[in-house]
Amino acid sequence: MTHTPPPSPMLYDVAQVATALGASTRLVRRLIAEKQLPTVRLGRMIRIRVSDVEAYITAHASTPQTAEA
């Protein structure tokens, strides 16, 4: 009998995004208010696509500096 793992979530709530970013929920809510992080509204619930969180991380990743000799 094979057991298939549950599918990965497509949407995070604010607390899950905060955990993924290593930040506070207050920062996540500010990013949402400033339209830096798109949301999906399901009734009164606010959710953020996992792909949007990944895109935010990619867009804000710092690139290593090379030293000039």
Brief write-up:
The protein is of the alpha+beta class.
Structure keywords:
69 residues, alpha+beta, flat, three-stranded antiparallel sheet
Describe the structure.
It contains three helices and three strands, in the order E-H-H-E-E-H. It starts with 10 loop residues before the first strand and ends in a 10-residue tail after the last helix. Helix content is 39%, strand content 14%. The protein has one domain. It has helices at residues 14-21, 25-33, 50-59, and strands at 11-12, 40-42, 45-49. The protein has a three-stranded antiparallel β-sheet.
Instruction: State the distance separating the first and last CA atoms.
Output: 62 Å
The unreliable regions are: none
Structural class: alpha+beta
Radius of gyration: 16 Å
Number of helices: 3
How many separate structural domains?
1
Q: Characterize the largest beta sheet: strand count, sense, and whether it forms a barrel.
A: 3 strands, antiparallel
How are helices and strands ordered from N to C? EHHEEH
Give the SSE layout:
Elements: E1 11-12, H1 14-21, H2 25-33, E2 40-42, E3 45-49, H3 50-59
Antiparallel strand pairs: 1-3, 2-3
